[in-house]
Amino acid sequence: MKRALLLIDYIYDFVEDDGALTCGKPAQEIKANIAQAIASLNENDLLIIANDCHEEGPAAADHPETKLFPPHALKGTKGRSNVMQDEIDQSKAKVLYIDKTRYSAFHKTKLKKILDKNKVDMVYLAGVCTDICVLHTAVDAYNLDVKAAVLSSCTASFSEAGHKFALGHFKNTLGMNVTDSIE
């Protein structure tokens, strides 16, 4: 079985205390679990890093997130840097990077084609925010018939209520396995 770990938005702006849109401590507390998930991958697996990528100025004016959130994950800034870059660089798995401009890692990206081309049987979702980008990616995976599971120990959000809601939604509405580790 070919596996992929899809690490969503585990970047400076969402994780570090001074990040532009940080989840703070909940996101920081899952770092060791994400490191363990990355380390569990082998040379037959994929590690896909899907990070928000936004523009500033007039190019950003029509983006819906500009009305909801402060500027974050701006192209070319420290805010877009991967918190787990050392672990990513040391992974035995093939590493691929995807820039995303919406919540879902599938929206107008090549993610589905990458999974199909590499004959991935199972995608494990990890990262932040459980009830925003991880949730929207999971819904798209479901709608695209991509078999996915959520690593609950590798996800976090701004609020515990939002995190728990999303975990319940993955399991009870999307029928996804919610687990602590890659199988």
**Which architecture does the CATH hierarchy give at level 2?**
3-Layer(aba) Sandwich
Counted by DSSP, the helix tally is: 7
Determine the fraction of residues in helical runs and give it as a percent range.
25-40%
Q: Which stretches are poorly predicted, pLDDT < 50 over at least 5 residues?
A: none
The number of domains = 1
Mass-distribution shape:
globular
- Which sequence of SSEs, written as H and E, runs from N to C? EHHHEHEHEHEHE
Query: What's the CATH H-level superfamily name?
Result: Isochorismatase-like
β-strand amount:
15-25%
Q: Strand order of the main beta sheet, please?
A: 3-2-1-4-5-6
Main β-sheet, in a few words? 6 strands, parallel
Radius of gyration: 15 Å
Determine the CATH topology. Rossmann fold
Give the strand tally.
6
Structural class: alpha/beta
